Amino acid sequence: MKRPSIFALALLLLAVAVPAQKAVFVVRHAEKAAEGSDPDIPLSDAGDQRAERLAVLLQNVGITAIYSTDTVRTRATAQPLAAALHLPVRIYDGKNPQALREALRAEPQAIALVVGHSNTVPDLLSTLGIAGKIKIADADYDDLFVVVPRPAEAPVLLRLKY
After folding, report:
1. Any bridge partners for residue 89, and if so which?
2. In-domain check, residue 122
3. Bridge-partner residues for 27, per DSSP?
4. Is there a domain that residue 118 lies in?
5. Residue 1 lies in a domain
6. pLDDT score at 162
7. Residue 47 pLDDT > 60, yes or no?
8. Banded pLDDT at 25 (limits 50, 70, 90)
9. How many Cα neighbours within 13 Å face the side chain of 146?
């Protein structure tokens, strides 16, 4: 299994090292086993491996909340980290990023992982205050977005690969 780079880990640690700030890690679900948008499509073997890599990468960054849309592939992407941290996977409506933003704001000290889809992650990032259009290609499963809110300033966005 490929290990995360020291540079990527340093950026992640910097992102969550600021006291009294919340960081939100946002990913698209890992590789799916079939084409289509059916909510019951599971992860492929490569997707299962990517979900495990995500858990290894994030298990020591202080995640306190995990959110997923209600599809098999998003829940399966979140599950290895949830199991490692003994946290529940909270279900959110990917079509309502404002409701998720409010849920995150209700936990000002939370460091959250949010798992969504290629067509929901860009809107979520925009709702979290990220300017500019984010695009996720159909074949892209390795983006890890880190949003770090800042008081009275636009949030910082790190776009990493895992």
Report:
1. 66
2. yes
3. 115, 144
4. yes
5. no
6. 94
7. yes
8. very high
9. 24
